[in-house]
């Protein structure tokens, strides 16, 4: 049986008297690619933040390898879980190399110098995301897609067991969407990501959790979660669900917007 790496048990997160994440439970197996999908405002990012402890849970708990996450010290968590969040970090004059180097922090003491092995690891990560030639460029001057790839390189250097990504394909053109997702899958990590594009989700995720209004509507394989009637209910759009002839994966094709529908 495959080992469970992450387990969310009845997670609730409230803010300003409002419940944003409501009684969410799921497990993610070791090396599984687990996608969180749902409409804008469903609570996907909030749920991720609950998982990596940026938001304190109102109730429930998250287990990592069977142990409550809050029993690990921060350094240990940073060695096991890497996060690529959405791009809104102001990083001023840091270069690509500076940012990627941050992935080593959980393994270093203050003022420790990089070893040859560290430098090799960084160069490998930069090569993987195709940014070696831009290593000295200031992060803020990169394109959105390059910034995203730089943050993924930082996560690679962190050598986590679990990689949590919030909309990893944002800002990426269609080539890099596929390149990044197939690359992170090849890392052989447990991968948890929010993703808007249901066709990418179907292509790359082993299982999907469909969130709406902070609640789990379905959690299963893409074939089971991505049903036309369910998608209509959640996204208020008619769609056709069939198979992509090139990949044999589930494919969603949307109809024109129904002007009568009220998209919340
Ligand atoms: N720190 C916060 N303070 C107040 N409200 C918050 C906070 N974080 C999230 N929310 C609210 O929680 C709801 C869910 O937001 P969240 O960003 O988790 O949704 P999402 O599913 O990731 O949306 P999107 O697809 O638009 O990125 C929103 O109504 C948002 O305004």
Automatic annotation (TrEMBL):
All copies of domain ABC transporter, residue ranges: 6-238
Iron-sulfur found in the keyword field: no
Protein name according to UniProt: ABC cobalamin uptake system ATPase BtuD
One Pfam family, short name: ABC_tran
Transmembrane feature ranges: none
Natural source organism: Thalassotalea insulae
Lineage of the organism: Bacteria, Pseudomonadati, Pseudomonadota, Gammaproteobacteria, Alteromonadales
Record's keyword terms, sorted: ATP-binding, Nucleotide-binding
Keyword flag ATP-binding: yes
């Amino acid at each position: 049986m495959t080992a469970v790496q992450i387990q969310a048990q009845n997670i609730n997160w409230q803010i300003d008297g409002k419940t944003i994440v409501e009684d969410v439970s799921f497990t993610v197996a070791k090396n599984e690619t687990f996608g969180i999908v749902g409409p804008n405002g469903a609570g996907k990012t909030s749920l991720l933040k609950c998982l990596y402890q940026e938001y304190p849970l109102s109730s429930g708990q998250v287990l990592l390898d069977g142990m409550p996450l809050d029993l690990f010290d921060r350094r240990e968590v940073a060695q096991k879980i890497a996060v690529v969040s959405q791009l809104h970090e102001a990083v001023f004059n840091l270069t690509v190399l500076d940012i990627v180097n941050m992935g080593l922090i959980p393994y270093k003491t203050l003022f420790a110098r990089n070893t040859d092995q560290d430098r090799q690891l960084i160069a490998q990560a930069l090569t993987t995301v195709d940014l070696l030639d831009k290593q000295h460029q200031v992060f803020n001057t990169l394109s959105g897609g390059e910034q995203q790839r730089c943050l993924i390189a930082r996560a690679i250097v962190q050598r986590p067991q679990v990689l949590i990504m919030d909309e990893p394909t944002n800002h990426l053109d269609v080539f890099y969407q596929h390149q990044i997702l197939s690359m992170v899958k090849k890392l052989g990590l447990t991968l948890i990501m929010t993703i808007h594009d249901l066709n990418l989700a179907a292509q790359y995720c082993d299982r999907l959790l469909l969130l709406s209004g902070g609640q789990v509507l379905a959690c299963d394989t893409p074939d089971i979660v991505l049903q036309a009637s369910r998608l209509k209910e959640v996204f208020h759009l008619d769609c056709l669900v069939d198979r992509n002839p090139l990949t044999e994966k589930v494919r969603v094709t949307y109809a024109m917007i129904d002007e009568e529908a009220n998209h919340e």
